[in-house]
Structures
1.
Amino acid sequence: MQNNGNKALNLPSLIAVLFTLIAAYHLGNALVGKSLYRPQHLGTALEYAHTPINLLKPVIWGFNANETPTLQELPVWQAAAGLVFKILGSTWYGWANLVSLIFFATALWPFFQLARQYVGQRAAWWTLAFFLAQPLIVIYAGRAATDGFCLVVVIWFLFFADRMIQTGQLRWWLPLVLFACLGAVSKLPFFMVAGLVAVSMLIVKRERSLRLWALLAGAGAVAAVVFMGWSHYCDSMAALAEYPYTELRLSRNPFMVWWFFGDLQMRLSPGIWIKGSWRFLDATLGSLPFAVILLAALIRPETGSRSSGCWPLF
């Protein structure tokens, strides 16, 4: 008779332990005065703590000579952190870390649902476990910055995209558009990757319905219009700042365009792709030898599940 040592691992408990360790890491660092944060994001939250919260006029004290609003992404995370500072009457940086952890926690359920849709329930638990064990995710989850929040927005976007694709129901389109727009004005590179993943969902499903393709394209088009409007507004605010030595607006300085977007020669450079691939594998897997796991999933996906090989790419 076999003993209980062979019983299956309690995966939900493992997820709870991993998330608890992540929270303890960030809050513990904050308690000893070593909070993880990005100055440009936390700076706006601290300014909101002492001034009215205005999403259209985020100011980082000392960033511009004339205190002109400094707009990059739509400052939703900054506003949330600033509101917590106001309510608690304290600007302890750990509160900002806690805000990031709460935002991040809301993405675990849709992430699990996406994984379950494509690889089954037990594999979905393992997917969530490996997700929480990634070094980059450990940092994003609780750092006082917008990165984790932007990741949350992307996961919810993919969840609603999957619901629309699987059910064909129009009611999923409105929340899809909402998170598409929020993703575009929060961190465009994240949203562009999410858009490619959404397209891959349609391809994996072998969807031939022009209606679903049009709905997904429509969501992207609305997000593009919102992004263009936001970029124009940001540019107009940047024009009010004092730049005595150099012009930093994209529309006026070709060098700034190259700085942010590069050129075709740089994008086709093998060195860029090698370095990017190395950083991706190191950040997501923690150790280059673990890349074997990713390669095995792509080369030999689970029998009977033609989509399981695509899941590691998500």
2.
Amino acid sequence: MSRGNSTSLRSRSELALPLGEVEMPETLELAVDPLAEELPADARAWTLLLEGAYAAGGPESYLLHALRALRLAGARIEARAGGARLVPGKALGDEWPTVRREWLIPHAGLLKRLLAEVTEAAESPDSVASL
């Protein structure tokens, strides 16, 4: 996906989220929660997750773009005992199992590590902002 181009986000199997056309942000904006103002409760957690995905794979990272698409569909990060998990947004409807299988499971190791880092940052006494 190139910077500044409007494009549909699709998985390898041509599954599309119900987002229609989206404008691709500048490279540095990729690591910032696109819904921070609308959904502030977990915005810091999303920014940490997106920063981690960006650091691991760069601006063309499949996982980074999949996570951004999920967030734009209203996904949340939910804290729970022993870690954090992604909770699908209502916009995904019945497609969540397919999205999870096609977009996230191929990157499960990295995603689990990134969610653990988000949890660790939230629990850190040095954390400036609560997640």
3.
Amino acid sequence: MSSGQDLILRHPTGSCCLPRRADARLLQARTVAWCGTNRLLTDNSRAEETQAGLNPGLFSVLVYPQADEDAAQLLSDFMAWWFLLDDGLESMADLPPATAGNSRQFEIYSTALADQQPSGTTNVSISVASEIGHRLQLLSLDSWHRRFCAAMSDWLFKGITEELVCRQNEQHKAGIGIDQYLNIRHFSSGAIPTLYLGELAKTGRPCLRPASTLVEAFLEQAARIIFLANDTFSFTKEQNEPAPFNLILIIQQRLGGDLGRALAECADHYNRYNRAVECYLQIRDEL
């Protein structure tokens, strides 16, 4: 920072220190074999490079330590597929502006995750999405599965689609507003589906959860902590991209290039959301 002060990001109380019920190395080995069986890495050097730098088995047990072995394996496989899909969709930012064809492809992904196999598809990733959707449905209640599929659809349409449009059009060059960025990133980060998976991991079969404004407010604040932490860690990589989508860089542009002030303002956002989450954690039994 230009002021010479350290940035402090205060993390909410979490479950990362809980005992892990599944073996990360075993999960990872099975996920790698599963990716091979489903040809997720076939003739795709970018996917191989991405998968080599990931460890969805370890990710699953760190984020969902209470998941039993069956749920943890499903989560590890799902994360491997999701990370590879997200990486492929991110590369579309280099293509011409988003078209109706992309929307149609996203609809097919949404259908597949709802455990409805699209007829005649030769897209490996879509076929795997259908398998994942089926496995999720077997392990969960219909009510949870519907909510999760809706969250994944929001990720594709309200998140990824809007982010791609922002990256590709002239609006990005002029700078987007912070509120617009926060609204899009809320969905494109994938934080909400990730949080929903916590229900599956903790209980094995998620309970029917009645609609609650408190729960939805908690999820919104928690999601913002997740994507702001993500923006912080990816800042170094994204600052060299032609069309970055990162809160620090957006704030920096608004402030005329002052990185120190931009980092401080981003930290303020993070810590404000974190304080809200801490308040909700104090009434967790009501949630």
4.
Amino acid sequence: MKKRIAGVMSVCAAFAVVQGAELLHTVMSTTTQVTNIVGRAYADTGTTPPPKGVYYVYACSLGYITNSVCTWDVGQYTAWHATNYFPGTNCQVAMNGNNTPKSAMQAAGFGWGGYMRHYEVPSLPVWQQPTIRYCYAFTNYAEPSPFAYGNTTKLVGEFDCTIPTYNSSTLVTGGETFKSLGWGYLSFILIDRKAGVSAQPLSYCAFFFDTRGSYVPGSGIAVPGGISESAYQVGSGEMMVRTVFSPATKYCTLETGSVSFKTNTFSSQHFGISISRAQLLLAITNLNTYMADYRIAHGGASPTNRLGIAYRDYSTNPDDYRLGAVNVAVEAALDFVKSDGSLTPTIPFNMGFSGKQMKAKSVW
């Protein structure tokens, strides 16, 4: 299922390799591409799990976005007019079909698009964070080992992307000011499969878009209100390594030919980063330190995931990690906790993006 792109690989018990090779993990073929979005569009409102070994789109906190095929031009918000490129095929879904506009998803060939707006976000009081992802997931316990080809191995992620639509709003209530926000990122779902212990996932996310600002290269400091590199537990319970498409970052390297982090809408650009074994190890070391500090602050108790299962320290051997999935996503925050502990109403927002040629590969 994996394709060797260049070079020669000889594998033995020690995974000996010849330098100058790369291995494409996200297989691009007539069977993995999207030829009909029906069966390749999923949402958290559904009961069928997404497929493995093919490309698909997925939405969270956007209601029944997959319930019908639509033919209206979602491209007016995503800049990808899928019905023109793939006439006569089902390549767009939205709630209630052709009632326009609605939050929608597009997928055909190796391209995708997504448009999300606040109207389709389920009602409060449940806190929501709407998301649209273009994904490729690997079969459980048969995932590739992206760092297992010697000390020079690096995991590379690349894609082309456009964000043509971004409209946020501000809410002033009780003397406090809140603003709806959206951002974009590339995510590797890494799984620590160290022998003798339970498998443990990790989200390794590189942000490529956020209007609030970006990491200041080399300083370890973010622009006020922006994002910085860190390793920590997010509010939904996952452990995350957070980095950014920018020069001089510690958890990833900007690939040659890639643009850097964007703070405004943009037309098609190529994005690419790599993660070396040393960068993975640094991130894991920092994440384990974060958990050690948590235990000190909580009487020895470890942080737990959303199921209440305690996290153990992550393996410090890069060979133990498997690539569970890769995705390019946009996400938004539309409601916020006020100083009195209550939630704001959903703040108006809409955002569109599109892209093509998402790949993940090992290079050594």
